[in-house]
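Q: I'm building a small set of examples for a reading group on sequence design. Run inverse folding on the following structure and report the sequence directly after it, with nothing in between.
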């Protein structure tokens, strides 16, 4: 999990080489999203032995975040108007 200096944005990702990937993010070589929001601060990490576990955990974290902001899982499109 990465965040920016002000801790206002969050990114959850998967990699096989965490040290290398964080270095890439810190050098501006990360994803477009992490580069745009300057997500270079490692907030949390967990190691897994199987990629299936990794993907399941990433999905769980993202869904938990969504559910914390939108517990009914409503379509928020109408809120834009």
């Amino acid at each position: 999990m990465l965040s920016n200096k002000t801790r206002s944005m969050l990114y959850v990702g998967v990699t096989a080489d965490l040290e290398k990937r964080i270095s890439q993010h810190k050098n501006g070589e990360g994803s477009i999203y992490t580069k745009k929001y300057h997500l270079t601060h490692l907030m949390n990490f967990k190691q897994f032995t199987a990629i299936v576990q990794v993907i399941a955990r990433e999905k769980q974290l993202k869904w938990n975040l969504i559910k914390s902001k939108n517990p009914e899982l409503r379509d928020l499109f109408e809120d834009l108007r």
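The radius of gyration is 15 Å.
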